[in-house]
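Sample intake sheet
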Amino acid sequence: MNAPTSSPPCCGREDPGAVAQGMEREQAQELSRLRRQLLVAAVLTTLVILSSLAPMLGGPQLPLLPSWFSSPWTQLLLSTPVLFWCGRDFFRAAIAAFRQHSADMNTLVAAGTGIAWLSSLFTTLFPEVLRAEGLPADVYFETAAVILTLVLLGRLLEARARGQTAEAIRRLIQLQPPTARVLRHGQPIEIPVSLVVVGDEVQVRPGEKIPLDGEVLHGSSWVEESMLSGEPTPVAKARGDTVIGASINRSGSFSFRVNRIGADTVLAQIVALVRQAQSSRTQVQRLADQVVGWFVPVVIAVAIAAFVGWFWISGNAVLALLFLVSVLVIACPCALGLATPTSIMVASGKGAENGLIFRSAEALETAGKLRTVVIDKTGTLTRGQPQVSDFERLPGAALPAPTLLALAAALESRSEHPLAEAIVSYCRQALGQGLAQALPQAEAPELERFEAVAGRGVQAVVGGQEVRIGTPRWLPELGIATASLAPLLERLEAAACSVAVLVVNGRLEACFGVADPLKPSSAAAVAALQRLGLELVMLSGDARRTAEVVAAQVGIQRVIAEVRPADKAAVVRRLQGQGEGPVAMVGDGINDAPALAQADVGIAMGSGTDVAIAASDITLISGNLAGVPAAIELSRATMANIRQNLVFAFAYNLAGIPIAAGLLFPFTGWLLSPMLAGAAMAFSSVSVLSNALRLRRFRPAPLPMAAA
């Protein structure tokens, strides 16, 4: 029989790796371009400011500088590249917005700087026209250059803080092993995963990653599917069971038939979910753009009204044009370029001090508007590390507790199941140095006929005694009655414990209750979130009863249990569609990545997987749930600070608009001068910077005591 040949990629299916690399290249190119533009703009703007100081202040020429350096022609040459090379994107965006009959921040920047440059160009070319009318021949080149440079700085900061879509996808793809051990003509050969086809039989050894999705043909094992289910407990696999690519084979060897490859695998579908959620997430509109949306048309209307009014009153087109230009220049506050990014820079640094990493300005903004927080259970509310919470000798037990603990430690030390690791750790800690005395062979036990029974437990002969540890449902198969265990099992299961029963020589001896304990801060963090007025939802892949027990312990009323990864993203999407948004998702596992990306704000535990962190908007470095209310409080404080900055950014300029429009000209003969425009610019910038620095005093509110 001929070996199957590899099939070509499905038509219309993009290679996720190529997509991720393309996105990373685009991000790198954009950052490189913005850095070059900002560097050139900063150097030229500094020279323009030095050139304009002497004319603006009416003082002597600056020392060590030639007289021609203060000429308007020098300022023209220096400022032109700043506007039309460094700032070309603003003009393109403003033109695009104009064609769509809208106005935004780009419109304001382009209009203010463009008019300032054009009017200054006219003044430079024809200064005698203004002087003949008794008007000052002032230029505004430095104003235009400073505005462009500051806004470019804000644009660069935003670009650096954008989401990490390509990085998240790349890390997901790296979970898949590069090769697979395939049986061809009865012989195992190592080939690249890309050459494996549907129907191939693949061998998997202990500790290896499963390369693709399929169905077990031979052998049995315990497989850790935490990347899929989010739960740390491995799943028993035997003939006919499904295995998932990128999951880890903890113990035992088996072979499986490949039934899904390429874009059809579960891993590829998770990648697709992350891409879909991140690309479809609507961008939160900047508060500055919302203000500019109405501010720009009003300013333009005022400028046109000033031109028409003064031309009608005086019949002097040059004077009327000067009023129009003055209004547009004073209405373009350079502090607006600092209002948002400065607060975000300070808040991001303050967040880092408190263990909060914000991936983007959108996340920092949206976190304060959250209405619903969805919290994953395992590894988020709980430690994600099973521990023995209960150990009880059963009625009729013949052996003392130390001997039972020593037998359990000896047997489970051969198992790779996480519950076994928890039991061994508990037994050794309980016995301490007494382990050897309790069972002389315990330190180096001679186990005979050790066997791991898939889905049931483990058994062996230890010190001449037949010892078994396993699930209660295994006991009837061994002919052991379990009626006496019912009350104990009910109590342990009500405490969200997994149960392991110890049987020696066919006699019930002891019972272990293994639970995933809550993190110490979980209940208090939940209480803090409720104090902030948020609706909380616990999401879990656990059975409903277990999930409800954990939710009750931390004070969460709303529980959605038995949820698979794709369904987690769907749950978040449903909550958003029901008007419960903005919605945050808090998780730590690979399986949480699609839901983290789908949420308006994805919050990942720093103790979780790299993929979850890369797909999230906020990372809690310590893995402490208390960071969630702290992040929301910091977001609210930051947005309040930004609103105040916008007031400072506009206040001086709004006050100057009536003067620029000529309100005082009939009474005082005052015209807007470069001195006044420069003063307004300086005062607004200082006010914005000083106000943003107040965020350094931010301290998260202390966690309240959770309700008992």
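Comment: Residues 16-57 form the longest helix (42 residues). The longest strand covers residues 507-515.
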